[in-house]
């Protein structure tokens, strides 16, 4: 059977949906928590639904709901949101060369959908390059948006009937999802170094209650991974040089 | 007031996601920078999940009484062995619920 253009697009859309599906399901408890917490902290239904609809960021929603309920100042809420969200700068930078060339509509669309989850599925060298891969990203990211909204709405509806879910350990669902995403990508020493450094420093910074804990740990870990790779490359180059010289010496003798 | 706050928050989350893919922004990435950035996914995702496991109420918790740690250990093993996202999530959730239940007995 020949692969027509239409069929190829359909297959890519399907793959995008299926690849994101486990993550869509994994954020169910987290989404319900965000929705119900907003209602329990006296947000109106409109406000509670605008959160996933336009803010669309789990940890920002959760933290800001508590801050707003505790009458924190506007500046505190916005600054905290900015700090939590600042890791996305890295995602934009990492995908910059692929996304900046997109037509405006697509760029805004993929930019809006660029969550941790979509970024985690964009590790491919050619992610978002060409129409088919763009369809993949749009369906993966778009389905995540729809499911996130859905789980939040379920939380909003069930909100007043549910007990306080904040101490039920729902954050483990996030942890196990990221374990499932990260561990299989550890295919070489530089990535292993990156992961170990990120884990160690993030715990350390969290205990020190350092506000930029996540981003600082990630940046330092990335640098360690980068240095490891440079070191390996240097050793490979030197080894090649030595092999080359000994080869020439043999030829002469 | 809350509505205004929500709109401003939306502006912030969108800006952090969109800013660096804006073509007019005068940023050029060299090969070294691109290599450095290729480590961003494992670095950021790990910096999100590891503290969830090890830090409970602001305290370091490395003990067999920490259900997060027990379940995370099984999840890491399952992920390394199977590379399957579904199986890892299943193993993680079952061991988490079980260890939480057993620890509260």
Largest interface: A-B, 88 and 66 residues
Give the terminus-to-terminus CA distance of chain B. Answer: 46 Å
Integer-rounded radius of gyration of chain A: 23 Å
What is the strand content of chain A?
A: under 5%
Q: Estimate nothing, just give the exact number of structural domains of chain B.
A: 1
Question: Tally of extended strands of chain A?
Answer: 0
* Major β-sheet annotation of chain B: 2 strands, antiparallel
Summarize the main sheet of chain A: none
Find the structural class of chain A using helix and strand composition.
mainly alpha
Number of helices of chain B: 5
Shape of chain B: extended
What fraction, in percent, of the residue positions of chain B are helical? over 70%
H-E order of chain A: HHHHHHHHHHHH
Which oligomerization state do the chains in this entry correspond to? Answer: heterodimer
Query: How many domains, in number, for the residues of chain A?
Result: 2
Q: Could you provide a short overview of the structure?
A:
The complex is a heterodimer of chains A (253) and B (105). By secondary structure, chain A is mainly alpha-helical.
Question: Key terms for this structure?
Answer:
heterodimer, A: 253 residues, mainly alpha, 12 helices, 78% helix, B: 105 residues, two-stranded antiparallel sheet
Layout of helices and strands:
The complex is a heterodimer of chains A (253) and B (105).
Chain A: H1 5-26, H2 28-40, H3 45-55, H4 58-69, H5 74-85, H6 87-99, H7 104-113, H8 116-120, H9 130-158, H10 171-182, H11 189-207, H12 213-252
Chain B: H1 2-18, H2 31-37, H3 40-54, E1 55-56, E2 59-60, H4 67-82, H5 85-103
Antiparallel strand pairs in B: 1-2
Helix pairs in contact in B: 4-5
């Amino acid at each position: 059977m020949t692969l027509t253009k239409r069929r190829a697009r359909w297959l890519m859309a399907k793959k995008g949906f299926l690849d994101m599906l486990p993550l869509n399901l994994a954020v169910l408890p987290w989404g319900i928590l965000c929705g119900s917490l907003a209602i329990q902290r006296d947000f109106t239904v409109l406000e509670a639904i605008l959160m996933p609809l336009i803010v669309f960021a789990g940890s920002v929603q959760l933290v800001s709901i508590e801050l707003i309920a505790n009458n924190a100042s506007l500046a505190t809420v916005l600054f905290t949101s900015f700090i939590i969200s600042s890791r996305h700068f890295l995602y934009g930078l990492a995908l910059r060369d692929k996304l900046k060339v997109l037509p405006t509509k697509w760029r805004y669309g993929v930019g809006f959908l660029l969550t941790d989850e979509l970024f985690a599925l964009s590790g491919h060298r050619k992610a978002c390059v060409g129409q088919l891969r763009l369809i993949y990203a749009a369906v993966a990211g778009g389905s995540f948006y729809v499911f996130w909204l859905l789980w939040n709405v379920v939380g909003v509806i069930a909100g007043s009937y549910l007990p306080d879910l904040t101490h039920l350990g729902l954050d483990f669902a996030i942890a196990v999802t990221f374990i499932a995403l990260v561990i299989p990508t550890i295919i070489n020493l530089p990535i292993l170094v990156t992961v170990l450094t990120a884990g160690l420093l993030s715990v350390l910074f969290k205990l020190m209650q350092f506000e930029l804990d996540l981003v600082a740990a990630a940046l330092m870990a990335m640098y360690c991974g980068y240095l490891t790779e440079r070191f390996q490359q240097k050793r490979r180059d030197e080894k090649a040089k030595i092999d080359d010289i000994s080869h020439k010496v043999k030829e002469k003798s | 007031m809350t509505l205004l706050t929500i709109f401003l928050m939306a502006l912030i989350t969108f800006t952090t996601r969109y800013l660096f893919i804006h073509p007019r922004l005068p940023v050029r990435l060299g090969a070294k920078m691109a290599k450095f950035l290729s480590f961003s996914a494992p670095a950021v995702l790990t910096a999100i999940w590891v503290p969830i496991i090890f830090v409970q109420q602001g305290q370091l918790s490395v003990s067999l009484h920490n259900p997060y740690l027990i379940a995370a250990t099984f999840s890491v093993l399952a992920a390394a062995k199977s590379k399957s996202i579904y199986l890892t999530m299943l193993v993680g959730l079952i061991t988490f619920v079980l260890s939480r239940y057993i620890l509260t007995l």
